[in-house]
Amino acid sequence: MNIIKNYGKDLFSILKENVREYGMYIALLLIITYFTIASGGIFISARNISNLLNQTGYIFILAVGMTLIIVIRHIDLSVGYIAGFLGALAAIFMTQHNIPVLITIIIVLIIGLIIGLWNGFLVAYMGLPAFVATLAGMLIFRGALLLSTRATGTITISNEAFNAISNGYIPDVANIEGVHLLTLIIGLLSVLIYVFSEMRKRKTLIKYKFEVMKKDMFITKLIFISLIISLFFYTLSQYRGISWTVVIIFIVVAIYSFITNKTVLGRHIYAVGGNPEAAELSGISVKKITLTVFGSMSMLAALSGILFASRLQSATTTAGQLFELDAIAAAFVGGVSASGGIGKVTGSIIGALVMASLSSGMNLLGVDVSIQYIIKGLVLVAAVVFDVRTRNKK
Amino acid sequence: MKNILEMKGITKEFPGVKALDNVNFEVKTGEIHCLVGENGAGKSTLMKVLSGVYKYGEYSGDIVFENKVRKFKNIKESEQLGISIIYQELALIPEMTIYENIFLGHEIKNKNIINWNETITESKKYLDLVNLKINPSEKVINLGVGQQQLIEIAKALSKDVKLLILDEPTAALNEEESDNLLKLLLDLKEKGVTSIMISHKLKEVTAIADTVTILRDGKTICSLSKEKNEINKNKIITEMVGREINDVFPKRKSKPFDEVCLEVKNINAYNHKLRRQVVKDASFYVKKGEVVGIAGLMGAGRTELAHSIFGNPYGYQVSGEVLVEGKNIDFSNPKKAIKAKIAYVSEDRKGNGLILMQDIKQNISLANLQTLTKGKIINNNQEIMIANKYKDSINIKTPSIEQKVNNLSGGNQQKVSISKWLFSNPKVLILDEPTRGIDVGAKFEIYTLINELISSGLSIVLISSELPEILGMSDRVYVLNEGRIAGELPIEEANQENIIQLATE
Fold this sequence. Notes:
heterodimer, A: mainly alpha, ABC transporter involved in vitamin B12 uptake, BtuC, 16 helices, B: alpha/beta, Rossmann fold, 3 domains, six-stranded mixed beta sheet, 17 helices, globular
């Protein structure tokens, strides 16, 4: 009895201490649970989860780039229409000039990068406020999108490989009715890798005599997260397996997490965001970092545009509308600090999941779209208020 | 003559420091009263108490203004009684016209609609009062600093000022502008305005003061009166620095080497924002294993000089040469200065020294991350070891190097800041106010560290506002005055009097 009591106490105190970090995970869990119950289980169904990810993948990608933009105390309003315009450009390249898919994608990504460097140049070297520079970009690329689709209107894309990016799934290793075996295998591997790496991390921490979680708490955490990973992959395996969108999101998140956590560049980005003057005095070029971050943002916007065009199997005249605001909201909900220097790429992904789950869940329940906007707005406010309050307490 | 103002037994404490300790301060109606004292003596704090920046209840003691005890809750209340304060940093709105600025906050209006014609006519009247012949429709941004100062005074006059307080009004002015301003103060005295002037320039003080009050370490030392013929420069200096040095400094065991490590030649720096030369033709050198103190009053250009050498992060226009171990170095940005083995520990560790939201190890490694990397990837374990090494050797008191710097005390933050720059492996270490705002124990530790560092051959430039620190720690002292090096003193000859003399000339 006493053991259970102590255990509960420890668990509670850990949750309480790390409420900032775990807060959004808990919120996400509550949202999922609520919609699952309210929709009679449809929300958590394999098909719904799979669609949810494929439909909003382009926002996830933007949210990753936006995280770094906000970390260095800027904003980028142009990414929505950059995505829209570059999606149209990809469609034109493939349908009107017969350029192969792979080359199209590479060219579009490079154009995205160049546009981003232009934004960064205006902000870092010309001293324009990012708000203004990217607002101008928003107008310019909206115009460019309309211009490029003027002759044809919506451009239908018939290339199967391209359309598979947002509609296709990874192949399976065996043909078993009702279960995607490769997905299950990948799921199992993920759990193993996760458990192994956490244990190694803990070992190093102990070696350097750092404070670590109590053993029972550590095991609880391992089991809990493993369970979530397993559940995720199990659900996907019940439908058509892992989609290419999920693969792309995973790769982008992995690359950006690595850069932000492990590399000099990542450290410099957070230093610039935390205190630009101190960063400059430490020999870091704030201008170059700004340029880099804006460049990466628009390259991701290009990728996002490709995902979106692929999902719709066409380039439309309204593609890109309000993408930027969804991405910004996802970042803030995911714990990125508006005053800079703080925020994780993975956090923004959770933020994007929260927003996507809200939309999907409310759609399932037949909530009117006007109400949906209001609720999402309130959630955004609540998330930032929570963030600011818990930060001030510390 | 009656007193317009009496401040009785004023005490104001900040966490850990007594900024004002039972200060008594009396100002007679119609006089020019100068308030002098070293950096940190409490002059500005006293004026903030008077003007209501620190509201009633945040200090103890009484303010008697025009024979009544006043309990100001904010600046507005003191302004309404005719107390106006003009700060060093001017509070004008550059993009507005002169007349808009003069009447900002007390607009001439009829039922909330501003009467611009009358505003312009009235503003001309006040411009005449301050002897400024200029079109009131001119934007303030187009005026020089001296003229802006006069606009501030005109603004105060337009509020029927009875007691005008000027905080180092001539600090940013050239000689002609300063003369003009002093003349104006004498004019205003004729018209019955009482003024208090805080100043470091003793020449000006002796020229216009009717009474001089000297503060030292938060206490009133004495008041000198012109009537009794007490005001002279030497007397003021003696009273300003008259404290006995009882801080203890650790014994120095090493002597400077013979070879010169840092040589700075003819540095000039121009600040475009202030439109003013902040460093003028400064040259100095530091030997290997030597501590060179740089003394000077607030605004003398000490930090600006350090910034100019350390890659000029704030974009002044800099000319001159810097040599490290006899070789001309590129010091056009901080990165290059760091590469040339110069390190700069900032005076403002929270503002531009450290990244408060990050932990100790991230702060220590920041300026020299590339040595911890393999192909741009940071070796976390090595970083931890380095941070632990400094934590132990410099004695940073913290449970873990993963502690956020924000949660450390001032002294420990400063140790992190110094560790960061030692990790960059410098030959020259510039310490800008290294002991500001830290407790006595940590101070002593930092002094001991300085001695250790020079014995291993490091060259140290010590910038400090605390004269005892300069005198106790330096091998040689340079005194800066208005951006110029006013003198060099070997430590045997240096004392508080001759440093202040050079700094205030």
